[in-house]
Write a structure and sequence with these properties.
The chain is an alpha/beta fold and 446 residues long. It has helices at residues 26-29, 39-48, 68-86, 134-145, 151-167, 185-196, 198-211, 263-274, 282-299, 324-336, 348-366, 370-390, 392-415, 427-441; strands at residues 20-24, 55-60, 91-97, 107-114, 117-124, 176-177, 231-237, 243-247, 259-261, 277-280, 306-312. Strand 2, helix 3 (68-86) and strand 3 form a beta-alpha-beta unit.
């Protein structure tokens, strides 16, 4: 359930001009499908339930509700495959799911209006029964209707169903889940290579990670003296169903059916044999350079090329255009209104109080006796206390304005967040984003 108790306020539809930062690099725009599929790739694809007689354009993400930048990858994969098919080079789009990450597939964040400002709410749609924005309520219904399989599989099926219902988009080829599609011959061959020489595997991995320090890839733990303690890029399924890290010495006692590839190994296998183009976001485009160097050095593999696609689409929450400078000014006025009667109106009382305060300030500055200064200072504060009482509503108005600006500024941070789930966005804006992706890939975009 959500921590907040108020009902969510509806988000207003976004406008197309808030599509910005659409990036489709030359790796996607310039890619052309190969004319054939190797026997090894065809065999691997059959094991994954992918087409084995045509080029595969693959992308993917963890089983969380995708933000529009991720959805842009989905649109791009479909558009590239369609372009190649139209050009006489049959291709198909596919979606991969590294579902061994820690994210809960049902957890989704959404903007919530609470006590005058927009805040970040969060819920789990597999258990939520309260009020939700329309897009999330629809997503919850599809999740609960999806039968069979893991939560991750149901979540991906629900998102794809929603894309069909809301946007009229056909689903790509069956999704490839890391925890369900791991018993391939190629994966088994890699496990055997790791068992034979774990140090060679991990040295190559770490060399590649160090060559790309901005990739975010952590080097694996290596033990030159006791190779069995060396960390491998694998997970093992424990008795409770959780995933635990694997060291080289664990391979002999761990059934192959309990092993799962970690992220780089998963995408590396897919790029080696499962697809002919892999579309990443900006993060994946950085870390998969490590994958290329690692598997090229260790196994001598040449991986399918990558391209980068991402976009930004924000929600319109009806928030005034305010800045941090506006907040500083509003707080300055609220503070100074308590000390400067001239700020409290143009009436005779406010003018007289302002004039008397100026007189007292001058007298305090010119007083030579400590006692006299203290008496004048006390008189000035009595004056200010009286003025504050007489103009309490004007002072309160300054306070309310400062609070309004603070709420608006905090809410703008929520509105500028590009990571809200696509199901919260207006269908027209999602279709406009899709159209921009298609135009660019077909050569008519800016």
């Amino acid at each position: 359930m959500c921590a907040e108790t108020t009902n969510p306020a509806p988000a207003r539809p976004a406008s197309p001009e808030r599509h910005r930062d659409l990036i489709i690099d030359e790796g996607v725009r310039g890619w052309r499908a190969p004319t054939s599929v190797s026997p090894e790739a065809a065999s691997f694809r059959r094991e994954l339930g992918l087409p084995d007689d045509r080029a595969v354009v693959m992308t993917g993400h963890q089983p969380v509700f995708w933000h529009p930048g991720i959805l842009a990858k989905y649109f791009a994969a479909d558009a590239v495959a369609a372009r190649e098919t139209d050009a006489g080079r049959p291709a198909v789009a596919a979606w991969c799911v590294p579902d061994h990450a820690a994210e809960d597939p049902g957890t989704v964040a959404f903007p919530r209006h609470l006590h005058g400002r927009w805040v970040r709410g969060e819920t789990n749609l597999f258990g939520e029964t309260g009020d939700l924005p329309e897009g999330l309520a629809q997503a919850r219904d599809r999740l609960l209707a999806a039968g069979g399989g893991s939560h991750a599989a149901r979540q991906i099926a629900a998102q794809r169903a929603l894309l069909g219902e809301r946007l009229g988009l056909a689903s790509p080829a069956p999704a490839v889940l890391a925890t369900e599609k791991h018993t391939t011959d190629a994966f088994g061959s890699l496990i055997e290579a790791m068992a034979r020489d774990p140090l060679a595997c991990v040295r190559a991995y770490n060399d590649a990670a160090r060559a790309h320090p901005d990739s975010g890839v952590r080097p694996l733990v290596v033990d030159e003296r006791t190779p069995g303690n060396t960390e491998l890029p694998l997970w093992a399924v424990s008795g409770s169903g959780t995933l635990i890290g694997v060291r080289a010495g664990d391979l002999a006692s761990t059934p192959a059916s309990d092993l799962r590839p970690k992220a780089l190994l998963f995408t590396g296998l897919l790029r080696a044999l499962g697809c002919d183009l892999f579309i990443h976001g900006t993060g994946g485009g950085a870390y998969d350079l490590v994958t290329e160097e690692w598997l090229g050095s260790w196994m001598g593999w040449t991986l399918a090329p990558i391209g980068v696609v991402t976009a930004t689409l924000t929600l319109d929450l009806g928030i005034p255009d305010v800045t941090r400078a506006d907040l500083r000014d509003a707080r300055w006025r609220a503070h100074h209104a308590r000390h400067h009667p001239s700020m409290l109106g143009s009436g005779e009382g406010a003018r007289a109080a302002a004039a008397r305060k100026r007189e007292l300030v001058g007298a305090i500055a010119g007083a030579s006796d400590t006692g006299e200064r203290a008496a004048l200072f006390a008189e000035m504060h009595r004056l200010l206390d009286r003025v504050r009482d007489e103009h309490a509503e004007a002072i309160a108005a300054f306070d309310r304005e400062a609070a309004r600006v603070a709420d608006a500024l905090a809410s703008r941070e929520i509105a500028r967040d590009r990571s809200w789930a696509w199901v919260l966005h207006d269908d027209r804006d999602l279709l406009a984003l899709r159209d921009a992706v298609v135009r660019t890939i077909r050569g008519n975009g800016s």
